[in-house]
Design brief:
By secondary structure, this protein is mainly alpha-helical. The chain is built from 9 helices and no strands.
């Protein structure tokens, strides 16, 4: 997992830091713009508007690119959850093809597996504990499945159950990879911060060169940008924040397979 500022700090801290950074950048630009205006000959005005338009175009492009990347991964996490629910449900039904003792034990293990997965975002259990428990149950399920040879009289049926187990294992790996390993790289965050600071400084320079401080407008600009960045950071966090993948399909599966 990429350990960086945006994955280690709480969201409220990131929001406050971003507001302070953007407001400071604009205010520094204001100060430089005021000083430049006083020192410049009357009637002379640098082409600030062209620079502002170019920098904000680049900033908008980077924000859109980063948002699309996080939104795509968020959609991928939702689809992987739905695929996993379907795979577990299928394996639970196909466990009936096993011998009686193996069938009962496998269904019990699958029930425990769903219980663990349904509590993935619970505050009482960490993501690493969910992964460890899930993989331990997977080993138990596989130890039962591998006792059935291909020459068994129920070979085709038990083979379909094993195929379902393999799909469950593959989806677990995909969810861990997409959810925990695939995040925005720290260099992307650093570049986005630098481009944002330069862009806000230049627009502050324009404000100052045109006259007036306009501190309230600077605060509005800083707050608006910080909210957009906060949304991107939140989407990039699979197990924390305000925007998380709804676990309702897994919970519904848990209720459907629980014994009365």
């Amino acid at each position: 997992m990429n350990i960086n500022l945006f994955s280690s700090l709480p969201l409220w801290a990131i929001f406050l830091l971003t507001v302070a950074m953007i407001f400071s950048s604009v205010y520094v630009g204001l100060w430089i713009g005021n000083r430049s205006r006083k020192k410049s000959p009357p009637g002379e005005k640098p082409p600030i508007g062209t620079v502002v338009a170019s920098l904000f175009g680049l900033l908008a492009f980077m924000l859109a690119l980063t948002f699309n990347a996080t939104a795509s991964r968020f959609d991928a996490r939702k689809q992987l959850l739905l695929d996993e629910v379907n795979a577990i449900g299928t394996a639970y039904l196909r466990a009936d093809f096993l011998e009686s003792a193996d069938k009962n034990l496998s269904k019990k293990l699958l029930l425990n597996y769903v219980q663990v997965r349904a509590n993935a975002l619970s505050e009482t259990i960490t993501i690493q504990e969910v992964i460890s428990r899930s993989e331990a149950i997977q080993k138990e399920l596989w130890s039962i499945a591998k006792t059935y040879p291909k020459g068994d009289v129920k070979g085709p049926l038990t083979n379909s159950y094993i195929v379902s187990l393999n799909e469950i294992f593959d989806l677990h790996t995909s969810r861990v990879t997409v959810g925990l390993l695939y995040q925005i790289h720290p260099m992307v965050w650093l570049t986005l911060i630098l481009v944002s600071s330069f862009s806000m400084s230049v627009i502050g320079f324009q404000f100052g060169y045109d006259g007036g401080r306009r501190a309230s407008l600077c605060l509005v600009l800083a707050t608006t940008f910080s909210l957009v960045l906060l949304l991107i950071v939140d989407l990039d966090r699979p197990a924390a924040g305000m925007i998380t993948v709804d676990q309702s399909p897994m919970v519904a599966l848990l209720h459907s397979i629980q014994p009365p």
